[in-house]
């Protein structure tokens, strides 16, 4: 689905910047920080955060926090991640969602990955 269509489906007026943010998030397998998104984007901090706040209000993205840093991903289903406390690598976890958990957006499990433990 095109970024403009995703924005319109969520009641967000499409702009070039907003469409580009959606495209960046669509191609990522893990949540991205401001710095990671900014690598592929030419925008000032205020405009970026206003867009992300608007996206969150309209249910377009999920914002999670790790070590006082926000991470963003498209809200296209419940997701779970393992984050290593040492190297901070983020890994997707396949978790079957119980029927009762209809409003879960994301879950973060922290620990030490096998590479860092060795």
From TrEMBL:
Cofactor comment: Binds 1 zinc ion per subunit.
A Pfam short name: FUR
Cofactor dependence: Zn(2+)
GO annotation, cellular component aspect: cytosol
Domain of life: Bacteria
GO annotation, biological process: negative regulation of DNA-templated transcription; regulation of secondary metabolite biosynthetic process
Annotated keywords: Metal-binding, Zinc
Single GO term (MF): zinc ion binding
Binding site for Zn(2+): 84, 87
Zinc recorded as keyword: yes
Official protein name in the record: Transcriptional repressor
Native organism taxonomy: Bacteria, Pseudomonadati, Campylobacterota, Epsilonproteobacteria, Campylobacterales
